[in-house]
Every structure is written in structure tokens, then in C-alpha cells.
């Protein structure tokens, strides 16, 4: 298994005239202490010259700091107008990226993101590339405008389902153009697979979140496995009707899973589980027009495998493998195994299988929190769902600090200062456990 590597400690860029709040750390943080120097000087808003000089610090002496994870959201967080604040706040940086997005997908996706209507943006074909592209646009703005360097500031990346493709870009395993193209083709294949199931077998397909108390989680998962039988396995029979293909698509937290498949079949399943357990979990239909991470998505697995077997579309890499494996890549956690990818071949295999298999999000967060001792978590992309899921596991609510670190999200330009200041304030904290 690839260990999470240490990263060089460099003060983060914050806006001129803005200073970290005093009184850190809280007295209650008994298991944490500051390393020297205790107050690394904040930098001003980064320029191109400061960015280039900071990148050379990767070979300098490394200081202890809390391990930091960068995570990205999945489908369902899309919102009409989600690019507008970034275009208004950072037009010189954002506009070329938006033009690149439209060029890669081959149509004005930015118009759909900006003007909608929502029913168009919510379609899988549009929602997936829109979310992934917006997430990377935010990351690129942090890099260009604030001197944020993932390779220097982050120890591990991960993404929820669709978000894994943004995480692979942030880690250095894929180029933005390649990942966005892959997301676009994956989305088309997923939408087509859903239409095929509807046309050939009838019924309505989608996803339903099931929320329960933590003490009921394991019995709930076991009961669902008992009722769905072999359809919960990736090796389920090909001749099984899609109506019977119900899968636990996501295990999101200690009290939430997501079921994927035929909606009527899911409702029946939830009713049976309630009777079987003598417990009444809450079921909520999600904003999804496809049953992601179920056997119905199997055609998308083949599409992703085919693209991953080819060469890059990025300028200057046309003859190179679409997946890179650089020595300085930041480890990225797989949705399928809940552990970092260990080789290029494994990355390709798991990324394709991810279309159909269960997203092990809860296990991923527990692994990073409990085994790798990640103490700072930064979500980048639309919506706060990812931050809330992470915070639910590692013990934060709202803006509270956690175990000497914290959980933050950048979904809007107004949140940048809080996140960069929070990282600055916790930069010198080391875990003594």
C-alpha cells in the first residue's frame, strides 16, 4: 500500500491586511502542541513570481504539520449559476478555464451552468461534467490567485463518486482535459444505460438515501444484503432483469447509505427491511435520473475502460498514456477499495469498476482519520454535502475545529479567506498521540 507522504510546510497565501485570529489553539486541545516556528508569517495575495519561487521549496527541509486531505463532491450538488461568483471575482483566471471547458466538451456547457434551466443542468449528461469542471476551476483559481499548491499543501486526495475524477486531476494522475472528457463519456454511457433499462423493461430508476441511527447501520446493511441477494454483487447474473438490480450504491457515513436501482423495487425493499428489523429508517429520494453504482451501469464500465486504455488528449501529451504515474503525485483514495491507488494498472481497473460498484466513502474517511491520522480536510467544489459527510465522521459541526485541525469547504469566493486562514492557524500543530 502506498503510504501518505509528508509534504513540505509552507505558509499559505492570505489576502493582504488579513490576519489569523488570536487565541489559537483552544486550551482544550491537550493532545496538540505548536511546532517551531510558532507563527509562520502569512503571505500576501500570490503573484506569478511568488508562485514560482514557492514551488522551489519542495526540496527544502520539511516541518511537521497535520496531515491534510483535499476532497471533491459527486453528482447532486449542481446548481444553476454556480460559476457566476467565480467569474465575477476572478474574471482573468476563470474565463480562460471556462473557454477550455466548453472546448473539451464540444458545446457551451457554461451556458447551461449559468442560465439553466435546472431540468437541463440536472441531466446526467450535463451535471457530471459541470460539477467536475467547476471543482477544478475553483482549484485552479486557488492555485493562480492564492499560490495554493496541492503537491505542497496536501497529503491525500479523494472524491465522492464523480468527485474521484477531480481528485485524480488534483493529485497529478490525470490532466484536466482527459478527466473531463472521460467524465463526459461516462455520463453519456450512464444516461444511455438508464434509457435502455426503461425502454426494455419499464419502470422508474434512480437513487434513495436511507438514514438510520448508527447502532442500526450494520443490521440494516446485512438485512438489505439478505433481501437483494446476488444482485448486490458485481458478479450478478447478466440475464437478471434490471428491475431486480438493486445495489447499495454508497455507504456514506455511520448512519446513511444510498440504494440504487428500480424505484418501486427499492420502496418494497425498504418496507421489507422495516418489517424485518422492527426499525423505521428514513428514506429520501435523491436528485438523480440514473441508478448509479448498480449493475445497470455496467455498459459505462466498458466505456471507461476503453478510454483509459488510450492516449492523452492534453496538448503535449498526445502520445502518452491517459493516466500518468509521476513520482511526486499526491496519493488518491479509491472509492472501491477505500485505500490509495497502488499502481497505474490498478487505478485504471478500479476507476472503471467504480461506475458499477459501491462507493466506500465512510470507510475512506475512517481510514484517513483513524489509520492515517488526517486532521485537516478541505472540500473544493459546489455544495456542502461532502463537508457535512466528512464532518459527521471526524467530529465537527459548522465551523468547529476538530482534533487540532478542521473541516472546511470552498464553494464560493467568500469562503476562501476562512479556509486559508484556518489552514494557516493550524499549520504549526502536530499530533502527539
UniProtKB/TrEMBL annotation:
A Pfam family hit: Acyl_transf_1
Listed under catalytic activity are: holo-[ACP] + malonyl-CoA = malonyl-[ACP] + CoA
Q: Where is this region: Disordered?
A: 23-65
- EC number(s) for this protein? 2.3.1.39
**SMART domains given in the database record:** PKS_AT
Q: Does the keyword Electron transport apply?
A: no
The protein's matches in InterPro entries, at most eight in alphabetical order, are given as:
Ac_transferase_dom_sf, Acyl_transferase_dom, Acyl_Trfase/lysoPLipase, Mal-CoA-ACP_Trans/PKS_FabD, Malonyl_transacylase_ACP-bd
Q: Where is the composition biased (Low complexity)?
A: 46-63
- Any idea what this protein is called? [acyl-carrier-protein] S-malonyltransferase
Q: What is the lineage of its organism?
A: Eukaryota, Fungi, Dikarya, Ascomycota, Pezizomycotina
